[in-house]
Design a protein that fits this description.
MetI-like fold; mainly alpha; 0% strand
């Protein structure tokens, strides 16, 4: 036994004190791996968009067919390079994307980057409103459903979550407009701001395109209230789409946490069920929700097309619908590809936040 004790008390070899475990910092390794995964993700998404758009047909013919003579059409196709082999077009397009060039619209000649800069703020603003609605509505109701597990409030909330997710967002938008704009006449029916309070962005030194921030920059309380009033119905219509997902996810994770041993120990000490849900199950249930937020950004951007069209919210979704109507597939391809890049980067950011909150994610 003395030899064992002596061995235990023997100091470690020189140079090993304070040395980090082999493999380096897990968080740094996790961030590097997730960052490197952005590039193949973008490559795959952009490739899929390119193939789908080319399967539809030649973009010039689709957009300008019937408005140009055959000779003019052939000249435009040759000038744009769409008469070259498809593999050559693909390689050139991938190279342009990774240098930040997403093409130029056929119908109005605007670069896609310019379109994103002009209308991207509106779509970002709508997505933020919708995400706030989804979190504020979905998480508390998910906790209520878990508290009343397998009772009638739980059943009603689960059915509600399914309806929110399954109902088309444009139909929800039309119902909201009918109730709050037509019948009750308390909220604006469309647009981002009233004509009388349309923001003078030229008066701002650094306009963002996000009307709420720009209204605060102008310092006009009436403009701020008007912008918020116009945001209520679109935010609700798009937010309900993901609120149902957060509701069911929160409910599932809270119920799972309530079955853990440390919760049973607290319950045996007489801790109330309400306190168990609020104190012990709330934070663990948030970690999966935060992880899923990145995936829901893609759903919000997809839903923004119908929401912006329904409420005439002049953002990327509205513009995308206009380009689809005019069969400008170059603009459609560029906007969708750039949205795919935004989704990939957003998922990377959300992964990092989840790793910072929950160390288990890093391993």
């Amino acid at each position: 036994m003395s030899s064992t004790v002596a061995a235990d008390l023997t100091p470690p070899p020189s140079g090993t004190v304070g040395r980090k475990p082999r493999g380096g910092n897990p968080l740094v390794r996790y961030i590097v791996v997730r960052f490197l995964l952005i590039f193949p993700t973008i490559f795959i998404l952009v490739s899929i968009v390119f193939v789908v758009m080319r399967v539809i047909g030649d973009p010039i013919t689709a957009a300008m067919g019937g408005r140009l003579t055959p000779d003019q059409l052939a000249q435009r196709i040759h000038a744009a390079g769409y008469d070259r082999p498809i593999i050559v077009q693909y390689v050139e397009y991938i190279g342009q994307v990774f240098t930040g060039n997403f093409g130029t619209s056929i119908t109005d000649g605007r670069p896609i980057i310019t379109i994103i800069g002009t209308y991207g703020g509106a779509t970002l603003e709508l997505a933020i409103y919708a995400l706030i609605v989804a979190l504020v509505v979905g998480i508390p109701l998910g906790m209520v459903a878990a508290y009343f597990r397998d009772r009638w409030p739980d059943a009603i909330l689960r059915i509600l979550a399914i309806l929110w997710y399954a109902t088309p967002v444009f139909f929800v938008g039309l119902l909201l407009k009918l109730v709050f704009s037509v019948w009750l006449d308390i909220l604006p029916v469309a647009g981002r701001a009233s004509t009388r309070t349309e923001l003078d962005l030229d008066a701002l030194p650094h306009p963002t395109g996000i009307y709420l921030i720009d209204a605060f920059q102008l310092g006009d309380p009436n403009a701020i209230g008007d912008v918020l009033a116009h945001a209520v119905l679109p935010g609700l219509a798009l937010g309900f789409l993901t609120a149902g997902i957060f509701l069911r996810l929160t409910r599932t994770n809270v119920i799972g946490t309530l079955s853990m041993d440390y919760v049973d120990a607290a319950r045996s000490r007489g801790v109330s069920e309400y306190r168990l849900v609020r104190k012990h199950a709330f934070k663990p249930a948030l970690i999966p929700v935060i992880t899923v937020i990145g995936l829901q950004i893609a759903l919000l951007l997809g839903g923004a097309v119908l929401t912006e069209t329904t409420f005439e919210w002049k953002g990327l979704g509205f513009e995308l619908a206009q380009y689809l109507g005019s069969r400008d597939f170059v603009a459609v391809q560029g906007i969708v590809a750039l949205l795919a890049v935004i989704v990939a980067v957003t998922n990377f950011i959300v992964d990092i936040i989840a790793a910072l909150i929950d160390p288990r994610v890093r391993y």
